[in-house]
Amino acid sequence: MQSFQKYNVSEFLKDRHPYLDPPFTSNIDPTQVTLAVFFRKIPKLAACLEFENLPFHLRTDALHTLNELVSHQETKDTMIQIGILKSCAELLISESPNVRKEAALLIGGLVTLMQGRSLLIDSEVFPPLQDKLVDSETSVRTAVAWTLKRILISRDGVDRIVETGTVPTMVKAFIKYANAPKRENKDYLIELLEGFVNVSQYDNGIEPMLGTGLTKCLIGFLTFGNSLDEVDRINQLTLNVISNMSANHNGKSEACEGMAIEAVGRFLKKKATNEQRKLAASVIMSVSIALDGKYHAVRCNNEGIPVILKRLYSLLLTSVKDIRDNAKQCFLNIAELPEGYDKSVIILSKNIPILDEVFGTHCIKSLARLLPKLSSYKNPPNIDSNELPMYQRCIKSLRFLIDKYEQAVNEAIDTVNISQKLGPFLAESSGVSEDAAHLLKKITSKCSHNKEILRVFIATIADSDIKRNLVRFPGLV
Q1: Which long-range contacts (CB under 8 A, 24 or more apart) does 329-335 make?
Q2: Among 198, 217, 301, 442, which one is most buried in terms of CB atoms within 10 A?
Q3: Which residues form a coiled coil (predicted)?
Q4: For the chain, where do the domains classified as CATH 1.25.10.10 start and end?
Q5: Residue 393: what pLDDT?
Q6: Which of 321, 332, 254, 333 is CA-nearest to residue 291?
Q7: Hey, what long-range contacts does 185-189 have (CB within 8 A, 24 or more apart)?
Q8: Which positions of the chain have pLDDT values less than 50?
């Protein structure tokens, strides 16, 4: 009889699977199963994209599923490694708008990684993106604009967009749909504007935007865009692009030609958002560096009021530092024009501490220059009552600055015949006789020439009102 041996099969996992480490459990870790499925899922879905006869709706589903998985960096990396960018570039020319849209969105999801952006040119993504930026389907071109914006978030992305000549295509697309904006194109235009904000942060990004008519279009869009929803956001983005472009030398010229300062002036008002006010001031700050920009800034309306300067002054009254800094620099730029200096001083003299903050002692000569020469009086020494409020502000400002800064009196002395200009204001009717006398004492104590001019003025020109009031100021003459 043949012998036989009975074997007992172990029921323990450590005997059946010696490679497993304790502790052992009968519970299955669901995350391990999920990861195993996902690791196989991405290559399978990627393979589906390349099936020639796959129905459009199934191809769309595959792309949509991949878009849902693209939120994790690991899955993005896997997709990039297996060449999904190349597949998406080919699908951008699909006959199905849904396939084109999902393909564009998937590219936009992958370009947040450096690995993805580095393969954009080799994967030949840009030609179909440029072509579909003016796709007949709004959803497709919006997705393409969103993708380009995502590429432009990084510096190397800007370089690739510029290198491939995509910026002019974006500009043409924007001009095409912005000149007569429709509500259905709102999101599309916003995506393009956000892309322009990113690309215009760099000189090599600005250059392809110049000479295209974009600046003129953007300035007009500040008005046309009011017909769209989210108008505040649209205006803010538009102002941001104009501000960035006008930082470039040629960009300033285009902004001047397009009357940018007048166009952005309404965003200096209180009803505009703080961000809009800051950006509007930034545009004026950049454009007013150019000579034509200075002239535009000091231009008066039909009532003779320099509107831009008055609105810039209102910005100096806010507590927002960035807004105040921009407005202050605007005044400093505009003041390089003599007319701009005088008009700025007239407006800022309404608030002497702000005048001091912006110009300091540099405005002494301008304040003195604004006082009338004796030869300009119709009936000397009687002061023109229409101009008296402005003259009063100038004299009070002069007193404040000369009292605060020791060297300021020397600036005043350099003004020709300053004591003769101040003489008529010794009359009590001027409302600033005490201030005028205080200034004259300081000036004549340091300058014998002005002391002699004042003596001659009182002896030959001063009327009874002035002479009677001199009793209040002993030692003046």
Answers
A1: 329/285, 330/281, 330/284, 330/285, 330/288, 330/297, 331/358, 331/359, 332/358, 333/285, 333/288, 333/289, 333/293, 333/294, 334/288, 334/294, 334/297, 334/298, 334/309, 335/359
A2: 198
A3: none
A4: 36-151
A5: 97
A6: 333
A7: 185/138, 186/228, 186/229, 186/230, 186/234, 187/142, 188/138, 188/141, 188/142, 188/145, 189/225, 189/228, 189/234
A8: 1, 4, 7, 33
The class level of CATH for 36-151 reads mainly alpha
Q: Please count the residues of the chain.
A: 477
- List CB contacts of 295: < 8 A, sequence separation 6 or more: 337
pLDDT one-digit tens code per residue, 279-290: 999 999 999 999
pTM, entire model: 0.86
Please give the C-alpha separations between residue 12 and each of 20, 21, 27, in angstroms, as whole numbers: 12, 13, 15
Measured CA to CA in angstroms, residue 354 lies from 34, 269, 331, 336, 389 at distances of 66, 19, 11, 18, 18
Q: Give the pLDDT confidence of 333-386 residue by residue, as tens digits.
A: 999 999 999 999 999 999 999 999 999 999 999 999 999 998 899 988 999 999
**pLDDT (0 to 100) of residue 39:** 61
Report the distance separating Cα 357 and Cα 374, nearest Å.
Answer: 31
- Residue 168: which of 201, 195, 140, 135 has the closest Cα? 195
Burial class (CB in 10 A: 0-12, 13-18, 19+), 304: exposed
Token representation of residue 471: 């009793």
